Amino acid sequence: MAEFDVYDSFELFMHNVLHVVGICILYYDYIITFANEVSYIWSNPRTHASWLFLLNRYFSILSDVAVVSANFADFMTVEACKNYYFFRQMMLVIAQVIVCIISFLRTYALYERSKRIMTFIVSVFLVLFSLACWSLIGQNSEYSIRHGCQQAISKPTGIHLAVAWEALFAYDCMIFALTIYKTYQERTRSNVAMLNSLVELIWRDGAIYFAVMACANAANVLTFYFLSPELKGLLSTFASSVSVTMMSRIMLNLHESASLTKFNPTPGSISTSDPSNSTLIFTSRITMPSTALGHNVSVDHHTVSEHSRSASNCISHGCQASGEGLSPDPEVPIELENIGTTTVVADGSIGRV
């Protein structure tokens, strides 16, 4: 592996600054949202959603510690420098795979856990992931260890590596299009205030995420095509950090939205003593009787939340009627299909049983 002449001072400065900016965004957001993380994640029982949140946030935080530490290390051989850059690329790929999995689960829940949607998204993901892995093979780059570990990417390799970020952009476009379609459907057919506010939250966060990531990914892809070999891909760490940060914010927003209803119940609402029903998980539901029951139902934002916890327990264990509502009874299964209900997955997704 040949060693190239070290960057000029401006290129080295720009590369290091933008790398640090991306990491600073990740750590700054972690600091200012840590109190919310303690309130909504650590203070509640662990669920699939909370574990995914922790994996998304702490994998990048810890891997960036290793990357930054290596930036200040002295590399004895060019081969060690080459391995370090491959490690950086793998960390970026894994971080984005975690984000894609969370996006998939949100969309899958939004579409009522439709097997057809799951098959479609997983199939597209596997194709795009295969392209991303292919783009990391057969790289033709030069490395310098005179001032730390520096990489110069050739033009063919730059175009090759750009495919991975283009695949990520295509995946984001697919998820955003599916979210727009489903939220529009739910807004037009739902008359319940909470459902509309929840749809607005999903739409708002999804739109902001897509807009920001579209700009970040587009800028990063352009660096692979048009910048000098030393600066190709200099926005990769920045784009990845922004993606991880925004996905963490989306999940915290959903936890906060659910927490507002959890801690502000109204008189007459249905409650349950099971603490697991007040925890955000991807399969918890809010069930609302449809007009097929033959009478009008007036439910406010907080009452819907209490129905969520009771109905979630009923779905798992069966319910029986009581003077104050529904109570769990494992010997009396509930026939949801005979009633017709609208369901809301507690992480913010909407569907029908």
UniProtKB/TrEMBL annotation:
- The residues forming the signal peptide are none
Q: Which residues form the DUF6533 domain?
A: 18-62
Specify the superkingdom: Eukaryota
Query: Does this UniProt record's set of keywords contain Signal?
Result: no
Task: Give the coiled coil ranges.
Answer: none
Keywords, comma-separated and alphabetical:
Membrane, Transmembrane, Transmembrane helix
Give the InterPro entries listed for this entry.
DUF6533 (IPR045340)
The residue ranges crossing the membrane are 12-30, 51-73, 85-105, 117-137, 157-181, 202-227
User: What is this protein's record name?
Assistant: DUF6533 domain-containing protein
